Amino acid sequence: MTHLRKLIHFVKPYWKLAVVSLVLLTTLVFLDLSIPRLIQRIIDDGIKKNDLTVVVQTSLLMLGISLLSALIAIGNNIFSVRAGESVARDLREAIFVKIQNFSYGNLDQFTTGRLMVRLTSDAGAVQRLVQISLRIGTRAPLLMIGSLILMINTNGQLALSLLPLLAITMGVIVFFSFKMEPLFRTVQIKLDRLNTVLQENIAGARLVKAFVRADHENERFETANRDLTARTVTVMQFMSSMSPVLTVCVNIGMVIVIWNGGLEVIRGDLSIGQIVAFTNYLITTMTPLTMMVQLSNTWANGMASAQRINEVLDAVPEVAPANPGAVLPEQARSRVEFRDVGFHYRGSNEGAVLEEINLIAEPGQTVAILGATGAGKTSLINLLPRFYDVTHGQVLINGVDIRSLSEDSLLAQIGIVSQETVLFSGTLRKNIAYGRPHASEDEIIAAAKAAQAHDFILKLPHGYDTHIEERGVNLSGGQKQRIAIARAMIMRPKILILDDSTSSVDVETETKIQAALTELMRERTCFIVAQRISTVLNADKIVVIDKGKIAAAGTHAELLKCSPIYQEIYDSQLGSGIRDLSQPAPRWEINP
Fold first, then answer.
1. Domain containing residue 26
2. Is 515 a member of any domain?
3. Does residue 549 sit within a domain?
4. If you count Cβ atoms within 10 Å of the first and of the last residue's Cβ in the chain, which end, N or C, has fewer?
5. How far apart are CA 255 and CA 368, in angstroms?
6. Which residue in 487, 483, 343, 495 sits closest to 411, CA to CA?
7. Separate counts of helices (H) and strands (E) for the chain
8. Under a CB-based contact definition with an 8 Å cutoff, are residues 457 and 466 in contact?
9. Is residue 195 domain-resident?
10. Can you tell me the distance from the alpha carbon of 260 to that of 161, in angstroms, rounded to the nearest whole number?
């Protein structure tokens, strides 16, 4: 219940739709409750007394009530559907906006598959809960209460004889409802796993094919699919057992009414019309209980989904937002300092990823970062745009701790070309101008030329208006990287981060891009994580990371003289002969 109460504010904007739906539903209940009385009138005042006029008039009245009930039911459905769909729309939007505010740490916690289930299946379950509540959730108790009152009014003693049975029936429904909520939650967990496997395989379909791992991935999917099916079957079997139990209760009630009512008819204390009306009221009383079967299923599913949605909505971004008005003082160039920085990922039991990092990048300097696989290069770079917060220490830009800056102010200073090139469906022009949607055509072309992308773009069927397919599948890896570089260049940032951004281009193109970057970053600070050592030979400062610490720092010439690690890296790639070739092969593996 707590989880649903947190979601009530999503219903509040549509309270008028809900009220109209409930008013129509209440009217429908009163019309339904009038039918048994009219049947009693036909039997006692019409058929028994051979009065055809009463039979015809009452039948026409029943027909009119039925038509009116149908129209009211349609209206109730329309308003309840509008309310439910509106709530689902707002809920999906709230989840999406929340995800946009997540830090990298939160995204590490919630996998893509889990978030997709929250946005689709879980939001749909809450939507169905709202609709069912406005259609059945209110109608069922009103019918029960109204029918009980009319049953007592018809024959109090006969009504009292049914109360124990009604109490037992309600107990059965409550028992099933409480048992089903955790069962539905386990189904959603299995659905999470299935969606994760599905998302990974769709995104990595080419990799699966390249490594001939289709059989392995089929087994993974089959296992997840089988687990979901088994859990769903268990839940459905449990749910399906409730309907027969309620049917037995209804039949027992009918036997009680017919037996006791029949005895009273024989004694002359009850008319045939009354016992027929009483039987109809009993059915009207028990029918809502059978409605509760559907409602309890939807309720349990909605409760489980509401809890899972609240896990996302209640998640606190690991990177705490700063004062929105806290902006970086306007300066022409930026000085970056990592001061006694340490960092480890949340939930990691492997100790610190970075320790005792002290690094200064003066305005306009190019700082290259090298190191072995898992040394912490990308982790270090991710601290600068505050994708993660340092565990201890400070990251400063122009002497200001970045944790005191607003996100917009900080990221406005930084251009990023990441390891994984992400392009969005749309035109090339829109992808290049993604960070500056109102950039002019000249600015877009200038950025593309600087990234060595202009020539290949002109060779495409529609040039800059060429449509990019999902994940940029109609471009090569090198082409995508150049578009990503152009996207960063058009921002004209004061700080540029290139995380292995030229790994997919040839050496000649890389040389041209580096020349363009040199011109672009003449007054800017640049950080480069590179796979090729040739990319960083001319950097103002080269930093070698080893096991989360700075092992060496200096220019290319300085490191060749004093850093064995750098000598090994240089020798392994360029074979300079600095090292004795009779020694074992270098242990260093350069990786972005």
1. 2-313
2. no
3. no
4. N
5. 87
6. 495
7. 22, 12
8. yes
9. yes
10. 9
- Quick one: which of 475, 539, 526, 532 has its CA closest to 508? 532
In a domain, 393, yes or no: no
Distances (CA, A) of 288 to 2, 177, 240, 285, 295: 25, 15, 17, 6, 10
Q: State the CATH number of the domain containing residue 83.
A: 1.20.1560.10
Q: Which residue reads 């959603």 in tokens?
A: 188
Residue found by looking up tokens 């281009």 in the block:
505
Give dist(CA 414, CA 557) in Å, integer: 29
**Domain count within the chain:** 1
**Tens digit of pLDDT at every position of the chain (592 positions):** 555 667 777 888 888 888 898 888 888 888 888 887 788 788 878 877 778 888 888 889 989 998 998 999 899 888 888 888 888 888 888 888 888 877 777 777 777 767 877 888 788 888 888 887 787 767 777 777 777 777 777 777 777 777 777 777 777 777 776 777 677 778 877 877 787 777 777 666 666 766 667 788 888 888 888 888 888 888 877 777 777 777 787 778 778 777 777 777 777 776 777 777 777 777 776 666 666 666 766 777 777 778 888 888 888 777 776 666 566 666 667 889 999 999 888 755 456 788 888 999 988 888 989 877 778 888 898 899 888 888 889 999 988 888 888 887 888 888 888 777 788 888 899 989 888 888 889 999 988 888 888 888 998 888 899 888 877 777 877 788 888 888 888 888 888 888 876 665 666 766 766 666 666 666 778 898 876 677 777 788 999 888 888 888 888 888 888 888 888 878 877 765 444 433 333 333 333 3
CA 371 – CA 550 distance, rounded (Å): 9
Please measure the distance between the N-terminal and C-terminal CA atoms of the chain and give it in whole angstroms. Answer: 48
